[in-house]
Amino acid sequence: MVPHPRSLRWKIVLLVALACASMALTVGVLVHDSVLRRSMNEGAIRAGASLEKALEEAAAAGEEGPLVSPGELPDPLLRQVEHGGEATFYEDGPPAPVFWAARREGGKLYAVEVDMTADLLTRQALDRHMWKYSLLTLGVVVPVTALASELPARRLRRVARTARRITAGDLDARTGPVRGGDEVAEISAVVDSMADSLQRRIDTEQRFTADVAHELRTPLMGLVTSAELLPEGEVTDLVQGRVRVLRDLVEDLLEISRLDAGAERSRPGPVDLTGLVRDAVKRTGLAARVSGQNAAVVETDPRRLDRIVSNLVVNAHRHGAGPVEVAVAGRTVTVRDHGPGFPADLLAHGPQRFRTGTAERGRGHGLGLTIASGQAKVIGAALDFANAPDGGAVATLSLPPDRASADA
What we know:
Layout lengths: L7 H54 L13 H10 L1 E6 L6 E8 L2 E8 L1 H51 L15 H46 L5 H28 L7 E4 H12 L4 E5 L3 E4 L1 H18 L5 E5 L2 E5 L7 H6 L18 H11 L3 E6 L5 E6 L4 H5 L1
Parallel strand pairs: 5-7
Antiparallel strand pairs: 1-2, 2-3, 4-6, 7-8, 8-10, 9-10
GO molecular function, one term: ATP binding
Pfam families: HAMP (PF00672), HATPase_c (PF02518), HisKA (PF00512)
Catalytic activity: ATP + protein L-histidine = ADP + protein N-phospho-L-histidine
């Protein structure tokens, strides 16, 4: 896998490369400047010594020495000599770099020049070597840094993968022991500790839900029986209706507790998909238009599939608006209403218990879609939620391929 250009690894490589380049440039400039100053100082000394020697040799031989006319000297050197009587000056050429030494003595102008070509070539060679070895150093340091930064980057990606798995619902995901005592190991330990704490909290919540549902079931059955014995009347109908709602809630909580505990197992068998959907819609007692196209005989658990379809239809009537349409195509069942659509929170995070996404909290307890999603996982199906472009909520159940066709 090619790392993202903006990943931490490449940022480290870039910073190291910039640091090395800055250091090489700084050292190069300082060395170049130091060598240049030393060359100029030595050139001035050599030019002055050459002029002194030429004058001494001329005096010993009874000659005039190295006389020059003012027009032969560079203007800056001539001005310095006129001002101070003696001066040196570096001239870069052409044809070649030279160092002048001039002196005015007895009204006469003496001057010599020293060839600085060798010094110039030495400085140029030094500059080339600094550039070459700086680039060579970068060519070694950058790959080594990239390789060295791969290990912490790999460890960070491992922690990120664990965090993504936990976010996706895999609460058993752990990074595991990480060698070293650096910040990456600390982050890994914190993520695992967070997952352990989250797992404990969820387990406690699931046990509490299951315990409450079980404790309520026995007295609730007695309440249901007692309600059935009440004399007929408007108050009796009201009491019996509320008792049935309470019974359904407890049954839903028990079903969710079994789904959370992983106790549910699929018992697949051949199912006429269109026929089962029609029967499931009919048992809800709610109006829905069912259409079938290229529907298949599928291998799945009919009881769980019936539960999923009925919950989707009930939810469409309870929180949406008619008409409710159920379409069967191939191995896909789509339930659509024409209401305000699913809330953004459900689309982003999936269904959550006791959250209906509507202002009318009394119209539902938010368990229907939660149960439908849980049962879909048990039979290996995918349940997706979306909103239609022209309005309305759309729930799409996609059944997996049959095991025999998948093996083939």
